[in-house]
Design goal:
By secondary structure, the chain is α+β, with helices and mostly antiparallel strands. 39% of the residues lie in helices and 20% in strands. The chain folds into 2 domains: 66 residues; 232 residues, PPM-type phosphatase domain (Phosphatase 2c, domain 1, 4-Layer Sandwich). Strand 3 and strand 4 form a beta hairpin. The two termini are 44 Å apart.
């Protein structure tokens, strides 16, 4: 035997309660003898009745808005978890920490993107920055990250990974142009590949170069001019990855978006990221998690919590001498290299 429980729709309740309160106020004014009197006591009672009805309406509207805001935040949190999935603390022998902050207070997801994946070709990372921030940038972030997560397993060369990202962005921009003909969007992208021996290769399209931390020394990973951002210009024919040295055991890479160095204080001074990193590692090497916390705290102090742009940080440290990744296929590890690599799923 089935029982069907009737449930009053929330919209009916939302509209019915204010209507009932309004009807009670009008009925009191038209039908109650006390409301027809012109004495001071009658006026006080009438005013009290209408004040109570008005207060009830305001509280009802406020409660509805709070409930709707809570639902929006839950949706935003789910979107953030789907787009910028929490990174495991260890990926193929690398210690990893990342964090991001949206400049739009109404959105938990901004225009910054990052991901780190262990593949048969090495550990591959992406850091990107979509023009604009907040809700409007989510579609582009999803297109670029989705393409990256597939391409890093399929393509043996970083140049072909970058072309996959460029095609995904082009499709996204064509769809956006149909809805918004004046929309001009671009994405800065940094692709990194770290081999088993720590060798670093990179392709940079308009993004800030990361910093390499070696002991207490802080220096840019490379000083060459990057390629133009993805979107406005076609990629060049030759996309040979740039050799950037070796990430030795104990060394760290700090990837970031331009919102970090562009952050200003009340006097208009930019945030000195290299100096902040030098201060963080002056006494002793610290973990990537501590570096992220230290930099975010320094940024909040510098801007007094009023960032004008999205901020993202990603720190990778080579801990391979202290961590052995012998379990093939485990989360955050890569399978042994094969001569005929097949696409794998990112767990």
């Amino acid at each position: 035997m089935f029982r069907i429980k009737a449930r009053v729709p929330r919209k009916v309740i939302a509209m019915g309660l204010p209507t009932a309160w309004g009807a009670m106020a009008i009925t009191y004014k038209l039908a109650c003898p006390l409301a027809q009197q012109d004495s001071l006591g009658a006026r006080v009672v009438t005013s009290a009745v209408f004040f109570a009805v008005g207060t009830g309406l305001i509280l009802h509207v406020r409660q509805a808005l709070v409930r709707e805001l809570r639902q929006v935040r839950e949706v935003a949190g789910a979107a953030q978890s789907a787009l910028l999935r929490p990174l495991p603390p260890r990926i193929d022998g690398l210690n990893v920490a990342a964090a991001q902050h949206s400049a739009d207070r109404g959105a938990r997801v901004g225009g910054d993107l990052y991901e780190v994946v262990a593949t048969e070709h090495g550990v591959r990372a992406v850091m990107g920055d979509v023009r604009g921030h907040g809700i409007a940038a989510i579609g582009t972030v999803a297109a670029v990250l989705g393409s990256f997560r597939e391409a890093v397993h399929d393509e043996p060369d970083l140049g072909r990974v970058l072309r996959r990202l460029d095609r995904a962005l082009d499709r996204q921009l064509r769809e956006r142009t149909c809805d918004d003909p004046v929309s001009e969007e671009f994405v800065t992208v940094l692709l990194l590949e770290i081999g088993r021996d720590g060798e670093i290769t990179a392709l940079n399209c308009g993004h800030p170069w990361p910093y390499l931390l070696t002991g207490t020394t802080v220096r840019p990973l490379a000083r060459t001019d990057p390629l133009p951002p993805l979107g406005p210009f076609p990629l060049p024919t030759d996309l040979t990855p740039l050799p950037c040295g070796t990430l030795l055991p104990g060394d760290s890479l700090v990837l970031y978006t331009d919102g970090v160095e562009d952050a200003r204080d009340a006097r208009g001074r930019f945030f000195a990221l290299q100096a902040a990193l030098a201060g963080a590692v002056r006494n002793e090497p610290i973990t990537p998690q501590a570096i992220v916390r230290t930099l975010f705290a320094a940024l909040v102090r510098h801007t007094r919590g009023k960032q004008a742009d999205d901020i993202a940080l990603l720190v990778l440290r080579n801990d391979r001498t202290r961590l052995h990744c012998d379990a093939p296929g485990a989360r955050g590890t890569a399978r042994a290299t094969t001569h005929n690599p097949q696409p794998t799923n990112h767990l």
